[in-house]
Automatic annotation (TrEMBL):
Protein name (Swiss-Prot/TrEMBL): Solute-binding protein family 3/N-terminal domain-containing protein
Record Pfam families: NMT1_2
Localization per record: Periplasm
Main location: periplasm
GO cellular component: periplasmic space
Keywords, ordered alphabetically: Signal
Amino acid sequence: MRKLMLALAATVAFAAAAHAEPVRISVGSYNLNNLPFPVAAGLGLYKKQGLDVTVENFASGGSKTLQALVAGSTDIAVGFYDHTIQMQSQNKSVVGFVELARNSGLVLAGGKNATFDPAKPETIKGAKIGITAPGSSSDFFVRYYLQRHKIPADSVSLIGVGSGSAAVAALEQGKVDLLVNYDPAATFIVAKGVGKILIDARSDEGAKEIYGGIYPTSVLYATQSYIDANPETIQKVTNATVEALKWMNTHTAEEIVATLPAEFISGDKETYTQAVTNAKAIFSTDGKFNTTDIETPLAVLKSFNEKVAAKTIDLSKTYTNTFVDKAQALAN
């Protein structure tokens, strides 16, 4: 009888797997802003929703993920909210449906020989600055800083170095003088003695100092056409992700790291865990978009992006809380 029950269970499991709904999700990088996505996968929450998720990691940055989404080679992207604003300025409808990171998480770090002093903004001139990729939010960070201090954009060199250990190595090896990046890179820089944090936007106070407000970053987004054609899939992805956000809010960094696949963890586990501790404050606890906070990325982009500045942007078309609201209702 027991053998029969085991056989039946195996058959049911096989049938469930065979009927799992495929969905392609691409992630811009394994920086910690995107952490809720692998946590949801590690906890088995997408499988729990009946989804078979194929993941593609564009380690070079979120702009590549955005290109894949617009080209139709992926269904959903884990990328930054400001990309939805950029796309609207180009008459393309890309919509965020779950907020993962409610704040920037970016830092600007200097190598051992860096001469930049934030108290004297003009000292940034001539610097080679590492960013994750051209067109990324780390790129925007630098451009906005230059614009605010009336420093010509061509007075620095911007170099794409990716994120995580590759970015830290670029600073350590002197390939760049300054580095704009996220955790875990930010924590590694200090732990390894590679350099020091000169501008820190991980806290709300730091973000307000740099941007003038809270700057939401990592979100799940898709094209409006995909959302309209696949609302049930979007809802399942949302249900799983919102559950992961709630779980992260009530668990320690050690417990969070324990859910992750090995390839997501950069460097030694102890330092990486410290990076998660340092980054915990940036994560959303419920997945909802705040209508005040999303004004900040728009203001930043308008300051140097001619297409955004020339267009009347309707922020209500860049995000939706509909799926998160339903996920919360289902959970209660």
